Amino acid sequence: MRKPKVDMGVFKERRDRLKELAPGCAFLLSSAEELHWMPYRQDSNFYYLTGFDEPGSIALIRPGMDPEYVLFVQPKDPAMEIWDGYRYGQQGVVSEFGADKGILYSEFDKEAVEMLIDVDKLYFSLGNNAEMDRKVYALLDKTMRARGRTGKTRLPIHDPNDILGEMRVIKSLYEQDCMRESCRLSAQAHIEAMKFTKPGVTERQVLGVLMHRFFQENALREGYHSIVASGANACTLHYRFNDDTCKDGDVLLIDAGAEKNYYTADITRTFPINGKFSGPQKEIYDAVLKAQKEVISALKVGMAYFDMQKVAVKSLTESLVSLGLLRGDVNELIETHKYRKYYPHNIGHFLGMDVHDVGLYAKANEGRPLEAGMAFTVEPGLYVPVDDTEAPEEFRGIGVRIEDDILLTASGPEIMTKDVPKERDEVEAICNS
Ligand SMILES: [Mn+2]
């Protein structure tokens, strides 16, 4: 028999908070679809409120009502469990996951109607799963009919991220610990990849070193498709082939993070394959590192989210001018977005259960102020296309990104990924050890 690996109190606490945040509402969450060529991962919002990771389930949560927490699940079935593994069944989700009621998935269409009659608002994410959408439309019709002429008409549907996205954007102490652990183990994997890499090894072999460490540390999975990009491959922002050979004289960019306990890290480091940065590589690297440090040192509670990018753009554009990659007035180059030729992306994103985690970056068109408990990446980069005839030749084909994961606290930024060095001499020392 399986047992949940996480204390169920974590999830109960979250459901309890909904009593204040969404009284009179119901949350209907569908489990992630099963793709048989990939290991199963539960939908993040579903997991956030339940801790339950079986496919083919639906959670109905009605804060403050009775029953408050209902799981519709697959039946116990010895024949099916031989193929797909253990199922908790209707009883198991009550005893192990704290559901008030476990009901068969096949009974959902019938059983859910009554539970929605007295609800004011339904939080359900439309458009993720066509079968589930159809179930919900039919359910709303039945509910409306069951309500009769009470003045209550069709249940309005709202995006669960209106509530759950804002809950998830501020990390609890439990979540902060989970994230520190994912960051710690991912940092170790990066260090091992640096030590392993030398001219002649393949990107695939480096990927293997990362995966070995991830799973030695009991990670659940990669947090996202890892990028192991040598030489000019680093200029492809979402390079996914990972099948080239690492060449003497090039740098290797690794963007990889492990997921553990449903929280992921997201780290990028760029280092010399032969253990020594060349002159032009040093210059690009130093420009990126300078920008990254300037953003991190500006971080504090209350800073507008979009100001991170402004700090990075200013720093990188100044460097691009002094390196001779751009010519002209810095402010004008910024206003006309000329820097985007070499820095085409944003400074980062929220991080958590999803690598690009939920949460709003702006409210009423204003960048939202950063709050304590937010976790996000800071990842400036410079990428000089190999065929960029306007760039000084020595810089062509160099791509550098440096990415750390930040937990913002009342007293400033905590760099959760600080275990992987980024100072040039420290990086070279690890590459040569
Ligand atoms: Mn990232």
Quick one: CATH class of the largest domain? Alpha Beta
Largest sheet: 6 strands, mixed
> Strand order, biggest sheet?
4-3-2-1-5-6
Average per-residue pLDDT, rounded, comes to 96
DSSP summary: helix tally: 13
The tally of beta strands, per DSSP, is 19
CATH architecture of the largest domain: Alpha-Beta Complex
Specify the CATH homologous superfamily of the largest domain. Creatinase/methionine aminopeptidase superfamily
The rounded Rg comes to: 25 Å
* Topology-level CATH name of the largest domain: Creatine Amidinohydrolase
Helix content: 25-40%
- Large-scale geometry: elongated
Which band does the percent of strand residues land in?
Answer: 15-25%
Distance between the termini: 45 Å
Number of domains: 2
Helix/strand/pairing category:
alpha+beta
Runs in which pLDDT lies below 50 for 5 or more consecutive residues are: none
The kinds of small molecule bound in this structure are: manganese (II) ion
